[in-house]
Amino acid sequence: MSLELLDGGAAMAEAAIAAGCRFFTGYPMSPFTGLLEEMSRRLPAAGGVCLNAESEIEGVNMTLGAAAAGARAATGSCGQGIALMQEAIAEAALNETPFVVFNLARNQQDYFQATRGGGWGDYRTITLAPKDVPEAVEHTQLLFHLADKHRAPVMLYGDPLLAQTRVGVDVQPRDFGPLPAKDWVLDGTGGGTGRSRQIWTWAMGKANDPGPGPDGHWRAIADKFDRIAAEEQRHEESMVDDAETVVVAFGTAAKFVEHVVAGLRAEGHRIGWFRPVTLWPFPGAALRRATTGARNVLVFELNAGQMLDDVRIHAADRDAVRFVGGVSIAESGLSYGPLLDAPAIRERILGGAT
Amino acid sequence: MERELVVSGVGGQGIQLLAKTLALAATREGRYAMLAADYGGEMRGGPSKAAVVVGDAPLQALPILPSAWSAIFAHHRFAEGVQDRLRPGGIVVANTPLVDPSGFRPDLRVFAVDAMTAAKAVEAPQASGFVLLGAYNALTRMVEPAALVAAMEELLPPYRRQHAESNARAIAAGAATVEVSA
C-alpha cells in the first residue's frame, strides 16, 4: 500500500481516472475548482480530455455528448452551476446517457437540488453522499459503475470539507462486477447503413425504425427508476437496536454525528445513528427498521430541513421526528458556520432528545 | 493512536506550509495523516489555522477537531478558543514574544520559542514557521527529523529551491531551542 496525501478534489480525480473516466468538463467554482484543476493536470496524462468549458451549461452538454459516444465522462460544479446543469441532467436521465456529476457544494443546502432534480420529466438522480475523502474515493468509482449499469446520470454530493481536506489515501481501481455491453453508443459504425443508432429523449425513432414514442419510453424510464429505487439503497447505522434516540445525518455532518453519538453512548445514553449513503434512492425501509421503537428520531443537517422530508416519510413513527440541524454558513459564504462542530452538535442532540 | 496538532496564527507566518510539511512527512513515513486548513480570503494578516492528525491506522479524526493533543501558537491574534480544546497535559509551542507563554492553562506543557530571533540567528528570517515546526517536532517526535527536512524540500516549488538550506537550518534551530530549554 502506498499512501498519498491528497485533498478530496485530487483524490476524486485519481479515483475517476482509475475508474476509466476519460472525459471531463467543468467551469471553476469553489469548492469544485480543485477537482477541475486536478483533472486538467492528470487526465491528459491518462489519455483523456479535460476541458474548461465556457459555462456549466456548455460543460454538462459536452459531457453528455462524450458519454453518448461511449466515453466514461463526468462533469461537476457547485450550487448555482448545478442549477444550470439540471436541464441536461434531466435530458440524459430521459435519453439514458450515463455520466457522473460531482456536486461539490458549499454546504448541505442543496439536498433537494440533488435528490429532487430541477429538470423536467419523470426522473431521479442516483446520489451518493460520502462522509470523508476515503469514502469519496470509493463512491467516485462506484458512481461510474452505477451510471453504466443503469444508463443514467448520477451524482456525488460533497462539500468544502470533503473537497479540501487532505488525507492519506491509497487509490486503487475497484471492481464492482460485470456491466452490460454498451451496444447503444453513437460511435458512427451504423452511419449510412440504415441502422444508425439514436439517442432521443422522446424516442420517436425514424421512418424505417419507429421507436416506442414518449408514452412507451417514459413508462419504461419510470419502471427503470422504480427498479433502481429498490436495488440501490445504501445506508450505515450503529447502536440503533436498543436506542431511544436515533440521529439521522448525511455526508460530512454524519461523520461528526457518529463521533458525538459514540461519545454519548459511552456516557450511557441509549442513542444510535443512521446515515443514508444513497440520498436517492433514500434507504427508507432500513430507516423504518432502525427507528422502530425509538422515542426520538433527530435529523441533523446543515440546512433549514430538507432530508427531514425523507425521514418524515420513512421513520417508523413520524411524530418522533424532530429537526435539530439548521442553516450555518461561514462569513465568506464558501463553507459552514459554527454549527458544524462536535460540541455544538452534541448540544443540539441533547436538547432534541426527550 | 491518533495525535492531533492545531496550528494557529496569522496569514503570512507560514502556518499552512508548516502544517503541510508535517502531514507530508508523516505520509512519506507510511503513516496516515490528515491536514485540514482553515483560512480566510486574505493572503496576509487574516486568521490562519491548520489541523494535522497522524496515526498508524486509518484515521477517525474529524476535520474540525473537537479536542487536540498539542498546539503551536504562532500569534496571539485569532487564537481565542484554541487552548480550550487542548486535552489536559497537552503540549504547546508558544511563539514569543508574539504569544505570552504565561497565558495558558496550568495543566498544559508550554514551551516558549522565540522563533524570529532563532530564525535570524541562522540567517533564515523568512523561515520562523519552520523554527516552530522544528521545535514542535523535537518535543513530540511526531516524525523523524530527516523526514521533516525531506518533506520541506519536496514542497518547495522550483523557483524557491534556494530556500532549502536556510529552511533546513531553521528546522534545526527550532529543535535546538527546545533541546536547551527542555
Task: Explain how this protein is built.
The complex is a heterodimer of chains A (about 350) and B (about 180). Chain A is α/β, with parallel strands linked by helices. Chain A is built from 12 helices and 14 strands. Chain A folds into 2 domains: about 5-170, Rossmann fold, CATH 3.40.50; about 235-350, Rossmann fold (3-Layer(aba) Sandwich), CATH 3.40.50.920. Chain A has helices spanning about 10-20, 35-40, 55-70, 80-95, 110-115, 135-150, 160-165, 215-230, 250-265, 285-290, 305-315, 340-350; strands at about 5, 25, 50, 75, 100-105, 125-130, 155-160, 165-170, 235-240, 245-250, 270-275, 280, 295-300, 320-325. In chain A, the strands form 3 sheets. In chain A, strands 3-2-4-5-7-6-12 form a 7-stranded mixed beta sheet, sandwiched between helices. A 5-stranded mixed beta sheet of chain A has the order 9-11-10-13-14, with helices on both faces. In chain A, strands 1-8 form a two-stranded antiparallel sheet. The longest helix of chain A is centred in the middle third of the chain and has 19 residues, at about 215-230. Chain B is of the alpha/beta class and about 180 residues long. Chain B is about 35% helix and about 25% strand. Chain B has a 6-stranded mixed beta sheet. The two termini of chain B are about 25 Å apart. At the A-B interface, strand 8 and helix 9 of A face helix 1 and strand 2 of B.
Number of strands of chain A: 14
Give the overall pLDDT of chain A as a whole number: 96
Which strand-content bin applies to the residues of chain A?
Answer: 15-25%
**Structural class based on helices, strands and sheet pairing of chain A:** alpha/beta
Hey, which two chains have the biggest interface?
A: A-B, 20 and 22 residues
Outline type of chain A: globular
> In what order do the strands lie side by side in the largest sheet of chain B?
2-3-1-4-5-6
Estimate nothing, just give the exact number of structural domains of chain B. Answer: 1
Task: Spell out the CATH superfamily of chain B.
Answer: Pyruvate-ferredoxin oxidoreductase, PFOR, domain III
Strand count, sense and barrel status of the largest sheet of chain A are: 7 strands, mixed
Q: What is the CATH top level name of the largest domain in chain A?
A: Alpha Beta
Number of helices of chain A: 12
The CATH superfamily of the largest domain in chain A is Thiamin diphosphate (ThDP)-binding fold, Pyr/PP domains
CATH class of chain B: Alpha Beta
What is the architecture of chain B at the second tier of CATH?
Answer: 3-Layer(aba) Sandwich
Q: Could you tell me the strand content of chain B as a percent range?
A: 25-35%
CATH fold naming of chain B: Pyruvate-ferredoxin Oxidoreductase, domain 3
Number of helices of chain B: 5
Domain Pyruvate:ferredoxin oxidoreductase core (chain A): 243-327
Domain Pyruvate flavodoxin/ferredoxin oxidoreductase pyrimidine binding (chain A): 14-175
Pfam families (chain A): PFOR_II (PF17147), POR_N (PF01855)
GO molecular function, one term (chain A): magnesium ion binding
